[in-house]
Amino acid sequence: MRMFLKRFAFLSTAAAVLIFPIAAYPSESWFPKVEIVPRPTEGGIREDVPRQYRDRYEKWKAELLSTEFGRRQWDAYATNPSFVLTIRVSRGKDKGAGTDRFQWDEQGNFVGATITLGHQIDEGYPNPIYYPVLSSLSSDATSYLISGRILAATKLSHELGHVNQTASANAAMIEKQSKLIPEYTSIFLKNGHNIRDRKLIELAEEIGGTPIEIWESREYWSEVTAMKYLKERIRNEAFYCYVFNKIRINVQTYARDYVDRFEPAALVPCSK
Ligand SMILES: [Zn+2]
Question: Collapsing DSSP states into helix, strand and coil, what is residue 63?
């Protein structure tokens, strides 16, 4: 069922949006283009937030910084002189968010990235297939109402996860992926979406998986980061088990191959 769902999601929109699954988080860019810039000497976090969104942004940020995990995520970038993390708030992203403009210096050091938050990230839940953690914060009439600020901070934590992942990735591999994924996509669209094509198999071996596998692996790692924030933030809330049992069911239903990353939340039913 899980594979069927994923394959269906993948193929049904392939022509329209290349190889993004239908379930993709709204407008999130996912494979970094390699941009080379001089190494910064006065790095840190640059907040590019229009005046009308400043109040809400400060509340989202305060939610993130109310946990030790969030503060550690934040401080790692705020205090790094040779890395510039830009955080923008934009109407264009609406309820979604994305991380892009990844930058390296001539020596291959990762030196910059931009997180763009929609102006309404305190609303909107992405699908449970690729976002088992973010989607767990949704509620219906019979369940808990979980604050939009927590949702927003969890989305911000997810995006910081993407920056962390890129920081720990091999720059040469990212460059290779950014060159070869468009080539893969182009062949895929012309060959009747046949991923068993010999050339596609070779390309997938070279870049560490099919584009969809690479993409989903990144999303799940970011969901693990989001889960760590959430675990600390809501540990004393009445809805803790409500959320973590949803995460467990989502991971077991849609992300079985990635259960290990989410342990123990993905394996042990929550009760307290
Ligand atoms: Zn993501």
Answer: helix
